[in-house]
């Protein structure tokens, strides 16, 4: 054979094809340091005998029926108050993920896992995940432990989303309404919307396993499906920033009407921005329930003001309280006015659902009642 320089090339092994020629056969490959090796998670799955599996299935069903909500309530209370051992929240996350998945695949009943099906649980799991991710950077000697705990928190977070999907498919209307209220609280908060995406962007193969990446992608997929369904079939999601079209130049005689239209548009955008901030808080107040008392009386029988004028003034008071953020007082005044003027359902019906009352308050918030915002 000839080399590139037209000199003789000697190769000491039989060569079938010229492409198989390599000078790196006897070279020692560089060794990768242990701290630069990809993180490989260890999977240990053991399949028990059939009789044992039946026994464990009955045990899980009995535990869900009789003790799950109580146990999870007391465990979380001890974790929040720092009355437990260090890192006991790992067992809390594992139990949440396992029993919620068992309930979803066995005989789905929301009441059996109601303790961990709430916005507060989403917040707590996200808080633990962010803490684990920060400790991965600060406590590098226990990097693998924090990575495994972050993976466990991610699995619990994904199971919460899957439970929401199961609630959407429930034949019970009250269960679907509860899922809608939870989603309205979650999807309006940027921290919840961008949490999984932030974990996906900050993925590091040296610190996190391939199984973690797979579960993270599945979690993002489930979240996108929930977000798509919420924005598509169930209504619109109001955004804080709107895309404005380019302005065209107008003549001098059209500047006065244009300025008036621009002022009205800015006022509408300002109202929508206020509603974006008020909607999650108002939904949370309605979800908590209770009696909303108010010191104001919607109707004064001794007053000389006509009844229709007092009715319009009561509507303006409800709107004013909503725009000022006094949600409990606004709801109490709305319900009191509903009892005074039940005709035509101007203030809503007496047996309206929470979602209907939320939409009625939104209509009052945006209504033009002849009063500046």
From TrEMBL:
One of its GO terms (cellular component) is replication fork protection complex. One of its GO terms (biological process) is replication fork arrest. Coiled coil: none annotated. It comes from the Eukaryota. InterPro entries: Timeless. GO terms for molecular function: DNA binding. PANTHER family: PROTEIN TIMELESS HOMOLOG, TIMEOUT/TIMELESS-2. This is Timeless N-terminal domain-containing protein.
